[in-house]
Amino acid sequence: MNSQRPVNLDLRTIKLPVTAYTSILHRISGVILFLGLAVMLFALDKSLASEEGFAEVKACLTSPFAKLVTWGLLSALLYHLVAGVRHLIMDLGIGETLEGGKLGSKIVLAISVVLIVLAGVWVW
């Protein structure tokens, strides 16, 4: 098929709606949770294996890098949870219009930012 339409392949100039950003972030947070689960299960296994393992994990979790990773995983979990609740609400038929979808996306982002900041305060 030979199309004469112009094709914009510069991803920096494409303007996506807010609903697209929330959808993309929901998928990214799911991948982060999937990968982070392996790290957390390893730490749990090591901490339950022996007293020395528990002490090592406890000492590791006090480092700034571990706190940053923990905050990142909590952030992904909180965002994924809030966006998932939005999907459940939409399954009930609420917010399925274009305006409702945009408003729901903005609410998800606002609630997530508040929860992520609170999680950061709690971790640090």
Automatic annotation (TrEMBL):
<keyword id="KW-0812">Transmembrane</keyword>
<dbReference type="InterPro" id="IPR018495">
    <property type="entry name" value="Succ_DH_cyt_bsu_CS"/>
</dbReference>
<keyword id="KW-1133">Transmembrane helix</keyword>
<keyword id="KW-0472">Membrane</keyword>
<dbReference type="InterPro" id="IPR034804">
    <property type="entry name" value="SQR/QFR_C/D"/>
</dbReference>
<keyword id="KW-0408">Iron</keyword>
<keyword id="KW-0349">Heme</keyword>
<protein>
    <recommendedName>
        <fullName>Succinate dehydrogenase cytochrome b556 subunit</fullName>
    </recommendedName>
</protein>
<comment type="pathway">
    <text>Carbohydrate metabolism; tricarboxylic acid cycle.</text>
</comment>
<keyword id="KW-0479">Metal-binding</keyword>
<dbReference type="InterPro" id="IPR000701">
    <property type="entry name" value="SuccDH_FuR_B_TM-su"/>
</dbReference>
<dbReference type="InterPro" id="IPR014314">
    <property type="entry name" value="Succ_DH_cytb556"/>
</dbReference>
<comment type="similarity">
    <text>Belongs to the cytochrome b560 family.</text>
</comment>
<dbReference type="GO" id="GO:0046872">
    <property type="term" value="F:metal ion binding"/>
</dbReference>
<dbReference type="Pfam" id="PF01127">
    <property type="entry name" value="Sdh_cyt"/>
</dbReference>
<keyword id="KW-0997">Cell inner membrane</keyword>
<comment type="subunit">
    <text>Part of an enzyme complex containing four subunits: a flavoprotein, an iron-sulfur protein, plus two membrane-anchoring proteins, SdhC and SdhD. The complex can form homotrimers.</text>
</comment>
<keyword id="KW-1003">Cell membrane</keyword>
<keyword id="KW-0249">Electron transport</keyword>
<keyword id="KW-0813">Transport</keyword>
<feature type="transmembrane region" description="Helical">
    <location>
        <begin position="103"/>
        <end position="123"/>
    </location>
</feature>
<dbReference type="GO" id="GO:0006099">
    <property type="term" value="P:tricarboxylic acid cycle"/>
</dbReference>
<feature type="binding site" description="axial binding residue">
    <location>
        <position position="80"/>
    </location>
    <ligand>
        <name>heme</name>
    </ligand>
</feature>
<feature type="transmembrane region" description="Helical">
    <location>
        <begin position="65"/>
        <end position="83"/>
    </location>
</feature>
<dbReference type="GO" id="GO:0009055">
    <property type="term" value="F:electron transfer activity"/>
</dbReference>
<comment type="function">
    <text>Membrane-anchoring subunit of succinate dehydrogenase (SDH).</text>
</comment>
<dbReference type="GO" id="GO:0005886">
    <property type="term" value="C:plasma membrane"/>
</dbReference>
<feature type="transmembrane region" description="Helical">
    <location>
        <begin position="24"/>
        <end position="44"/>
    </location>
</feature>
<keyword id="KW-0816">Tricarboxylic acid cycle</keyword>
